[in-house]
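Assemble and predict.
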Amino acid sequence: MADSRTPPEVDRVAASRRAVAARRERAALKHDVAMRVITPQQLLQRAFDAPDEPAGAMRITEFLTALPAIGEGKRDRVLAELEIAPVKRLGGLGARQRAVLREWLDTRFPPLTPRSGRSRLIVLAGPTAVGKGTVAAHIKEHHPEILLSVSATTRAPRPGEVDGEHYFFVDDAGFDRLVAEGALLEHATVHNAFRYGTPRAPIEKALADGRTVLLEIDLQGARQVRAAAPDATLVFLTPPSWDELVNRLVGRGTEGDEERARRLKTAKVELAAQGEFDYRVVNDDVARAAAEIAALAR
Ligand code: 5GP
């Protein structure tokens, strides 16, 4: 006779599959935090919102060691200081524990605080393959009041790209001339390959006319703009998850294996720079992200 306390084989198989899937999802979430794709505070909020989902089932010990620069020793000291038992799961934390953990995270990983007195010059940057170009194109199409800056570049036009509309395509000597004349607000060599720069004059004119200007440039360029125009608004676009960023890079299929590995390494370094920005916007949906950025101009 079958033991009534033992679940049937099919149930056990399904349960173990669910457990494997949940473990995998927890691992992905920890990786996202470690790579700074999502903030520790965002992960915590997910756990509080849905205690039965993988984020909620994560142990506090796992959560803390997933944070950048927190090892086991530090973890145990923090748990003692916050008076949280190591066996606790995030979804099972009490109100006092949630509050002290949030407070500790905000000191250790300060949320972005937009500076006051920012201008209508918006810089959109973010890791490679996050979809900056798509979001910028969406803003150009749906928010015609915003001027999307057209950069100069030494790379060759891709099929369908129009000179003066997507880029100003110039040769090396032409680019040197723009730099020598001081015609560029910023310029950089991107992906160790071609040079890109932002023409200064159209931006100054549009800003003087009271328009909002959007620059879609790389991280080096964003830092130069911050130095040249400290009142610019810096927006960092993040992928919804690290896996999503990898998928986008692979899916694009425009780079070989070696180049792809190099770009992912660059993306990791770029993600670590988001603390320099005023806002972070998640590119989970192009139209939503574009609307969020366009609203920053108002
Ligand atoms: P793509 O060649 O794919 O159009 O662009 C490659 C990279 O160059 C993108 O990351 C884009 O943000 C960056 N980029 C485009 N224009 C500029 C620019 O004017 N200045 C800088 N610094 N980067 C740019």
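The mean pLDDT is 94.
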